Structures
1.
Amino acid sequence: MMKQFLAVLSLVALLGMAMAQTNIEFWYAFSDDARSGWIQDRISEFNEQLSADGKDYQVVGERKGSYRETLDAAVLAARQGTPPHLVQLFEVGSQLAVDTGIFEPVGNVGGGIDLSDYIEPVINYYTIDGAVNSIPFNSSSPILYINKDLLEAAGLDRNLVPETYSDILSACETIAASGIEAKCIGFNLHSWFFEQWMAEQGAPLVNNGNGRDERATEVLLTSDAAKNIVSWIKNLNDNGYYTYTGKLEDWDGSDAIFTNQQAVFHITSTADLGNITAATKEAGFELGAGKLPIADGAERNGVVIGGASVWLTTGHPEEELEVAKDFIIYMTNTENMVSWHKLTGYYPVRNSSVDELTAEGWFAEDPNYQVAFDQLLETIPNQATGGALMGSFLETRTIIEEAIQKVLNGAEVDAALEEAKKLADAALADYNSNF
Amino acid sequence: MRDHAVFKSRFLPWLLLLPSLIILAIFIYFPALQTFVLSFYKSNLRLGTRRFTGFENFYNLFAGAFAPAYRQIFLQSILFSASVVFIGLALSVVLATFASQKIVGARVYRLFLIWPFALSPAVAATIFAFLFNPEVGGVNLILNELFGIKPRWLDTPWLAFMLVVGAAVWKNLGYNIVFYLAALQNIPKEYAEAAAIDGAGPIARFFRITVPMLSPMTFFLLFTNLTFSFFDAFGIIDILTRGGPVGYPPFDNAGMTTIMMYRVFQEGIEQGKSGFAAAFSLFILTIIIIITVFQFRYGSRRVQYGDN
């Protein structure tokens, strides 16, 4: 009798606790265990802190598939009146996210947010109409990966770091002539690189101040900057210097080409530095890194930050949003960004984290990480490197990639780009006409 | 013959049909009506916007900036469906005829032939993706060993197209064979025996007797295979090629393995243009209706129902 009574009593107590506790939902997009495990660890720490402070809130993290699926899930949930509090969104979805109207700029919540510690190019990207919309979380940019052993085998200086398109071409010429089996360069066919090469030349991707002064109405795919990029790729391809898996946006496939020593040079995200460094150790060759090679004669403007940030949704009580914001600031604090960077290779987005890593001697230990940092820190903040905003970004990416694929199949650069511009403009006009 | 005296009341048949009609109304007729209405709106799934634009979606489909892509996709879809249906049915008739011979182990052969039917399109496509991976796939390992070649199955335009057709045919083979095997059991042996006595060889018997006697089944399978190739091949395409790669002119306006249904998915779900996707699917519906009418009008004349 007593036992039963106690059991019922504890059940009631448990229920009471569960009722009193408000869940703060955080939807994120990482599907691998290492990254989502890291997020879950931060959530547990934060929840412990919350209960120690006697607050009746609890953060609940949930994987929602790809970035696109996460955005869709959040939008649908918001339309049904049950939005999550926090959503991790990719950078190219920024304009779309603003246009859905379900997000609250983080600067408007509570006392706003102290931005002084954030790396400038990162904040530059996520500032839209003068307001910081979201808190940067995982940020990256593309760099050049080099197989030093193959360079030497081809008769080149093993410490060679090509800076420009023509540097790459002349290295490729030597490599092809040397008769080694590997191709000169491999990178996956992704519009992201094209966008970076535009920014490096200081060229906006869309009009109206790269879509930041006003809604963009035109995609600038026939500019000289655009032609420089595609002509270079055509040149590499026609001379047999270039290789890729043939699939669009095939990150893993192109990494495999490089780590299997089928290419001397490789271009991919700094976020892969961790994985590739490990793979090269296993394959037994020395890895070098360089800044992204740029068009000849252009001033190095720097890169557009890629990756994702965390957004707050509207329609929640002020207090819940405050807790949500506090969690994200906790997750991206100095110490956590250091461990995040070491785990993945994503940039720690805070200056204080960079200082801490430097003090630890992290960069001296592996200078390849230093290269990635220099590239970001030396970026000139302007509208081109701030990154383009357009609602039809995802369609534009496909259009650009298919245009480059056409050029690889033998089409003329000018004609392919003109056609692509027509399509991208039409897609953008179609998107804009929703309003 | 008038034999609907079975039902005394005029309402009873409707009452009995009611459960089916309710389900059809909720899941088929009402969504179809909504699709029709939606096709006249500019509507975006993510933005939640919706505005009446009349025939703009249809204009964009036939004459907009992306019209060349849609034309290519239309042609490809027809080519794809025709290939899947004809290769699939021809192969199935032949295999089913072989499998219905009285030989040792016939039941085992039949079982293996029916096997792919049990797989979902996604699983079938995954198997193909592994087999035809250019670097590590079993097919290229063998080809490389024998001939020293490693064809790039997934990104050489026509090769990718043929691979997707092959995967779709293979996936549906089991289904077709099951039906043909059943139909073959029902063909009276006398016809073949009589023909044999008259001096017809096995090939003549196959084309003059088996194929015509199977025509009612072929007529039925034409529909199911057509539906499969138009709609259910989606899973195979999504996993094997995601609609790519872009072909050589004049097939350079869209991915070579993008069929209409796949593009509807890309526009409607991936890009959130629900109004346009509705217009596009109405277009597909129209094509299906035309083909069906055509088939009933001209196809059914050739069907041999044995008894009459």
2.
Amino acid sequence: MLEGKKTAILGDRDGIPGPDMSNKLKIVHYLNQFFGQIGGEDKAGIPPRREDGPIGPGAALNNSLGEDAEIVNTIICGDTFFNENLEESKSEIKKMLKAINPDLLIAGPAFNAGRYGVACGTVAEIAKTELGIDVVSGIYPENPGYEMFKQYAYFVETSDSAAGMRSAIPDMIKIVKSYIDKNGELGSPEEEGYMPRGIRKNIFAEERGAARAIKMMLKKLEGEDFETEYPMPVFDRVDPVDPIKDMPKTKVALVTSGGIVPKGNPDHIESSSASKYGEYSLEGVMDLDEENYETAHGGYDPVCANKDADRVLPVDVMRDLEKEGVIGELHNKFYTTVGNGTSVANAKAYAQEIAENLLADGVQAVILTST
Amino acid sequence: MQLELGKIKIEDIQFAAETKVFDSTLFINQEELLEIIGEDSRITNINLDIVHPGDSVRIIPVKDVIEPRVKVKGPGGVFPGFISSEEMVGSGRTHVLKGAAVVTTGEIVGFQEGIIDMSGPGAEYTPFSRFHNLVVDCDVKENIKQHEHEEILRMVGLKTASYLGKAAKDVEPDELETYEHKPFVEAAADYPSLPKVGYVYMLQSQGLLHDTYVYGVDAKEILPTLMSPTEIMDGAILSGNCVSACDKNATYVHQNNPVIEELYKYHGEKYNFMGVIITNENVTLADKERSSNFTAKLAEMLGLDAAVVSEEGFGNPDADLIMNSKKLAAKGIKTVLITDEYAGRDGASQSLADADPSADAVVTAGNANEVITLPPMEKVIGHQNFADVIAGGFDGSLEADGSISVEIQAITGSTNELGFNNLTARIY
């Protein structure tokens, strides 16, 4: 059994205690070579280094934070080095952050510097998802670093150039202070002054949903402005691949989101909102019977699937086709998860891993069954 | 059609020698009730418990919640097609024990049953913690198959609610509300200058534990049809339904459909509320296409300018929701959709399984994947060991001390898509 990607199943600070607000908040500041006062483009190739205390814009930040917080270290990395040696930079910076163990990370501000914005975002992703450290940063909204990494940091909106430093610093300080006052539980983007992170959070509205719906309908009817509570996302489109020309020589695998598992669901795949997928052997299995297979899926009538799991994962028919020579062979493993209530991000992560495994095993075609 | 709902306030429930309502208290003769609901030979045991708001009590796994009512005047009776005959309801007078509810629990039938905590953080998410509940914990014989098991529990709940409702028959209501629905031609002529609005009521119909009944008919067997809002307020639709606890419509919610209540508020003033189109959420593409085509056609035949569309469940029914949205919009009907979200535990994923630009006015009842920790309760009614396997639970949900970490989808009624609650989600 393979665990789902950890990043995909983490909630906010999942299992990691929140910052200790009783003492001074320990902050690390991430800067590039330029704001880290090492040099211009000629120094963009320097690898990550750790310095004591605040540097450059960190000094102004540190002064304004007063007794509540302190920038204990600054991590500096050249923008070119970071982007050309991504894995090395990430692992080095992660090591540094782990050793310092700060309560909060401040990155940038990056303004409209593309490579710097992406570096700040990448560092934020590591801090947030791998170490559970919250991140405050500043960025120009059109900097690609914002769109790519917005969910990992509280980004304040800055102007497109360093000329905006004077207003960016107080905006970032405001967020840090609020973060301290509210024990790490920041309010909405409008309340706090950061740009939306694209994270859906539950709140209790003043009126029940039905009353809000009628009011929205009235506005729509009367041609007034209204604000939807859920802006529609843009979905990925996958282009179909070319048809398979030589089926009798093709190795085919079965993959399902219908939750078919060995009886007893040995890996405890959840009935809804699956945090993992399973990989199980089909070696010598000609037919899925009631004694040995069932569904873990909680989103459809399981009676027929439990009686004969081939209805969801058609091993019996595939064995027939194998025997008749219609297909080359059936892959000797199947992959399964529960599609019910499972987030798109998790589903995507499982699909990527499953696809890599299938490719490594020389599988040429997949029949994907859903329910 | 004119319906009077006589609401009798219930502020306490107690077991007593005689079943009656006195001074806002519902007294229940336990033996008599057990005799009536225990008559099914497939039942092995029934326990009754009374729980109140604020009690340190957890009920798990919850199947349905039902409001006790009785017909006092006019045609038909409660729960038509099951307890009463197929006579049309929605007119005359019905008495309601307001503040009381019947909650059914027992061994799990499927995965998608829920939790009601009567106090603590979980109580804020379920609307049913606000009521005085009679909990019916019912066990059935071991060899009973799932479909039958669901049916036995459903009937026990309906029989209990109908038995309790009878106590309200001769009681003077604290409040009397009147709702009217006229024949369509007359209704349209009443307010010719106001826009015509309707309600598209999507009923869960995906199969076992995903069924809804209309006058006793399984909604997967229907073509979309027109109903008077008063019929629904009078209990024509009920739940056979345990889809994820958070967004199934318990029978109680059908009986008290908030969209209908809210639509009545501005009827005749800001718009003309013409009626309700009920439709289903079947699993095949052909059914989905046919039902959404039929729904849009009925809306056009009614001459609707706008409609509220409510979903039930999630994932597969998102496709029905979006088809309805597209097809209504294509007829020039302005729609508002009510749904909930599955944006992942971190809230960073796409919330629905389908999307369309026509769905530009959406009310959300919250992200069902958000995780909550429910502290231990002094008393557990039902079977706490199912916490790990119900939808929204995971391996290790139930801690040794009795606390439970689950997604709020495991909490009964938490993200109800009729807009029953105040919970919603925003971008942070």
